[in-house]
């Protein structure tokens, strides 16, 4: 019986893969190949209860996909049970408001979006092409990071620049992390015993990349990322919102090129730029506890800017039933959650220290007191969402 979905998340130098039962969420196989194309490339995967790690020096993308195919084909009971292949695709532009079965037309549209996501879509396309060659009889499904946010109204997605730039070149706000925001909003509503289609919530996906979303009755009304994943919150190495005049200043006074500025804001800013030590929050929190001033400041700025975005979403939502933290930081950083909620005391948030300390695991995800506006932790599972979308389209 065909009941499993192979999920591929292809980045520029990594491939995350999993074989999932979309009905139960059970994993038959999960793994990651990282640092593709370098001498330090490696794979780590779990098949059943067995974990395997291998060095793969200088392996290329085609070789990586070939290895994943080999692992699947030599694993008993997987190949004959595969129903479809689900692909994470970062940018679908305005063309895709839902997930889609990949054919020539869909692949052509994904290519058209390369200019909007030059670091991500090419890798996604390579993954699609390699998976199609490896599994020619399986339907290939594209699940777009941008699709969930296509319900945003024009007031939220149109930039206040000449309108012709939108009409002629589709320059607008798109938003990302849509698969995660969609998953955790559904899960949060279930945990709260509420109907998602009668809920007003803010979801905060916090990891190396960070974004928030205002979700009303199951639909995205606004989100923090824009034309690119650079807009919005402070992130691991990305600056988030800065004065656009900074570009001209850096160019005219410090002789920065456009490429230099893009590198600065995407790879050298955020928590790395503020702390001066790392983009990973964990060592920053450790040094802040030891009194490092810049690390403490980095954490404060992160929480302050996150809180400002959350508070601003009262405008499109009108009320707030729950604030949901997710992603690696959102699910695990007690410091960030507490610091953010302290800025939001005017909205009725009061942290329950014990619940926050255990990441809400013993309180249905809730980390606030009984009388407080609800804030909660909901682990994201983008792979399961992709698998469910793929299965739904195929069946």
Query: Which secondary-structure class do the elements indicate?
Result: alpha/beta
Radius of gyration: 21 Å
What percentage of amino acids are in beta strands?
A: 15-25%
Pattern of helices and strands? EEEEEHEEHHEHHHEEEHHHHHHEHHHEH
How many helical stretches? Answer: 16
**Number of strand elements:** 13
Instruction: Outline the low-pLDDT stretches.
Output: none
What is the general shape? Answer: globular
Biggest sheet layout:
8 strands, mixed
Widest sheet: strand ordering: 5-4-3-2-1-6-8-7
> What's the helical proportion of residues?
25-40%
Report, as a whole number of angstroms, the end-to-end distance: 13 Å
> What does the average pLDDT come to?
96
How does this model look, in words?
The chain has 395 residues and is α/β, with parallel strands linked by helices. It is 39% helix and 19% strand. Strands 5-4-3-2-1-6-8-7 form an 8-stranded mixed beta sheet, sandwiched between helices. A hairpin with a 2-residue loop joins β4 and β5 (50-55). α1 (61-73) crosses α3 (121-134), α10 packs across α11 (293-312) and α11 crosses α14. The protein is globular.
Write the layout of secondary structure elements.
Elements: E1 4-10, E2 14-20, E3 27-34, E4 42-47, E5 50-55, H1 61-73, E6 82-89, E7 100-101, H2 104-112, H3 121-134, E8 140-144, H4 154-157, H5 164-169, H6 178-192, E9 200-206, E10 210-216, E11 219-223, H7 245-254, H8 258-267, H9 270-275, H10 281-289, H11 293-312, H12 314-317, E12 322-326, H13 327-332, H14 334-343, H15 353-357, E13 375-377, H16 382-394
Parallel strand pairs: 1-6, 6-8, 9-12, 12-13
Antiparallel strand pairs: 1-2, 2-3, 3-4, 4-5, 7-8, 9-10, 10-11
Helix pairs in contact: 1-3, 10-11, 11-14
């Amino acid at each position: 019986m065909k009941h499993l979905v192979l999920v591929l998340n292809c980045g520029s130098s990594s491939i995350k893969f999993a074989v999932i039962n979309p009905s139960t969420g059970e994993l038959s196989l999960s793994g990651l190949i990282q640092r593709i194309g370098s001498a330090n490339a490696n794979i780590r995967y779990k098949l059943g209860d067995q974990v395997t790690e291998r060095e793969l020096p200088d392996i290329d993308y085609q070789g990586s996909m070939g290895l994943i195919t080999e692992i699947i084909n030599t694993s008993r009971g997987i190949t004959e049970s595969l129903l479809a292949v689900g692909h994470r695709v970062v940018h679908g532009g305005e063309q895709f408001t839902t997930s889609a079965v990949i054919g020539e037309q869909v692949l052509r549209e994904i290519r058209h979006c390369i200019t909007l996501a030059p670091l991500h879509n090419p890798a996604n396309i390579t993954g699609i092409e390699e998976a199609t060659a490896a599994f020619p009889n399986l339907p290939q499904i594209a699940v777009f990071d941008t699709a969930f946010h296509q319900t945003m109204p024009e007031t939220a997605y149109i930039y206040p620049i000449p309108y012709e730039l939108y009409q002629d070149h589709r320059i607008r706000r798109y938003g990302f992390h849509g698969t995660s925001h969609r998953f955790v909003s559904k899960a949060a509503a279930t945990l709260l015993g509420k109907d998602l289609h009668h809920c007003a919530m803010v979801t905060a996906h916090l990891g190396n990349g960070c974004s928030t979303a205002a979700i009303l009755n199951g639909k995205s009304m606004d989100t923090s990322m824009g034309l690119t994943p650079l807009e919005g919150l402070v992130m691991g190495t990305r600056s988030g919102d800065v004065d656009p005049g900074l570009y001209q200043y850096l160019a005219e006074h410090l002789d920065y090129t456009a490429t230099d500025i893009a590198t600065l804001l995407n790879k050298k800013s955020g928590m790395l730029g503020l702390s001066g030590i790392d983009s990973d929050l964990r060592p920053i929190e450790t040094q802040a506890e030891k009194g490092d001033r810049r690390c403490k400041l980095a954490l404060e700025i992160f929480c302050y800017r996150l809180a400002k975005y959350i508070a601003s979403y009262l405008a499109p939502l009108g009320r707030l039933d729950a604030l949901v933290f997710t992603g690696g930081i959102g699910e695990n950083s007690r410091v960030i959650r507490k610091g953010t909620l302290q800025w939001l005391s005017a909205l009725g948030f009061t942290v329950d220290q014990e619940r926050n300390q255990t990441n809400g695991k013993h309180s249905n995800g809730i980390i606030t007191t009984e009388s407080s506006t609800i804030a909660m932790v909901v682990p994201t599972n983008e792979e399961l969402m992709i698998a469910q979308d793929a299965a739904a389209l195929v069946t």
